[in-house]
Here is the input.
Amino acid sequence: MKSHQDRMARKKAVMDERIAKATEERGVLILLKGNGKGKSSSAFGTMARAVGHGQRAAVIQFIKGRKETGEHKLFREHERIDWHVMGHGFTWETQDKDQDIAAAEKAWALAERYLKDPSYDFLVFDEMAYMFKYKYLALQPVIDALQARPAHQHVMITGRRMPEDLEAIADTISNIMDERHAFRLGVKAQAGIEF
Ligand code: ATP
Ligand code: MG
Here is the structure.
């Protein structure tokens, strides 16, 4: 029988080989999708990681939530973070399609500027996927701009469902599953957890 030590040594050799093969350094496109909790908070957490290392970041929230998030309160004052909250609440509250499209286009115009600016290392487009679901934004110009962005620039996009064509150009895709959510146990949306 193989000892635990032998198995670990073998595992380490395999990992070392994989690490040696991954040599490229460049900006990545990361998509966070799925019905579970943790997409936006993961994007903001990763941004904190990048900014902590001295990188410059911008966040565009394509949908304005009911409540201002703690991350916005914390990060908006940071000298290396630009934070834009676009839109006006949830569609089923506003029910004004023209107004929603205008807001989406305004948010995209801003996003496009950042995608052309090499002085930004890290971009978060929160809830951008929603814009495609409701056809508030055309997908192809977004794909083109993502592909033409500065080579070192990282982009994270969140949203429950991602268009297939966007997935096709992504480097990393995480699907966050909803196994259980406290809301269904009767727990209300709490500061510090939901927003
Ligand atoms: P978070 O902002 O906590 O990272 P998220 O970005 O993954 O969550 P969204 O789909 O943007 O989730 O939903 C917005 C809000 O709804 C969040 O505050 C989140 O906690 C809550 N939420 C997420 N998933 C569920 C769910 N399956 N059931 C009920 N509420 C949810
Ligand atoms: Mg979210």
Notes: DSSP finds eight helices and six strands in the chain. The mean pLDDT is 94. Residues 35-41, 158, 160, 178, 181, 183, 189, 194-195 surround adenosine-5'-triphosphate (ligand 1) (CB under 6 Å).
